[in-house]
Inverse folding.
């Protein structure tokens, strides 16, 4: 029988446990943010999975902020399946999803900038992506010593849709919320 090709597809709830396992492989050392099974179930519609012969070997998610911004998160390929083009396929599938929603800018934070540069992303200043800061970074213990690289593809957002968290301005004097 012919071997089926590696392909991506939208995740469904029965995939959640395998997605959880894939992310857990790389969340222990901080490469990926940990995600609980409950969070994955709740947000399963954000996820795309990579499968080969019906076996799930990778995943990635696209979090939508609005047409001005979406974020690629939790992207990973199982260690035994890396280097075969699966990561590139996941990015492509998530970019297609972003395009379907008419999103103008895709962002991500990573410690693997070379991989994403090869996928057409450029390094940005994290202040260029205020929604991401307001949603996650402001509460992160590593906010002032972040070792992740902010990257974007598309036009930088001109505004933030999320409100600035209470007390945020006090600790970050140079931050600009609205760029219109
Ligand atoms: C990063 C990751 C998703 C890449 O998946 P992959 O299936 O190995 O990647 P691909 O085979 O599609 O590689 C695509 C291209 O990126 C390059 N690449 C892959 N991993 C790379 C890395 N860590 N650093 C630099 N370049 C890398 C490949 O050489 C390839 O280049 P080519 O097209 O010129 O040959 C995978 O290594 C992984 O899951 N890592 C652990 C989790 C992680 O770091 N996720 C990203 C955090 S934001």
């Amino acid at each position: 029988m012919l071997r089926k090709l590696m392909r991506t597809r939208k995740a469904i709830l029965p995939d959640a446990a395998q997605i959880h396992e894939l992310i857990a492989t790389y969340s222990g050392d901080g490469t990926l943010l940990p995600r609980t099974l409950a969070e994955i179930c709740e947000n399963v519609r954000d996820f795309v999975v990579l499968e080969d012969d019906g076996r799930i070997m990778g995943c990635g998610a696209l979090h939508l902020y609005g047409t001005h911004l979406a974020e690629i998160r939790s992207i990973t390929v199982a260690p035994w399946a890396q280097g075969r083009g699966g990561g590139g396929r996941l990015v492509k599938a998530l970019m297609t999803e972003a395009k379907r929603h008419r999103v103008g800018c895709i962002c991500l934070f990573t410690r693997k900038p070379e991989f994403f540069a090869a996928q057409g992303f450029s390094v940005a200043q994290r202040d260029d992506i205020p929604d991401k800061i307001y949603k996650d970074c402001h509460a992160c213990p590593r906010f002032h010593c972040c070792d992740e690289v902010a990257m974007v593809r598309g036009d930088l957002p001109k505004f933030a849709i999320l409100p600035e968290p209470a007390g945020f301005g006090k600790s970050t004097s140079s931050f600009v919320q609205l760029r219109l």
Q: What stands out?
A: Residues 7-166 form a domain with the Aminopeptidase fold (CATH 3.40.630.30). The radius of gyration is 17 Å.
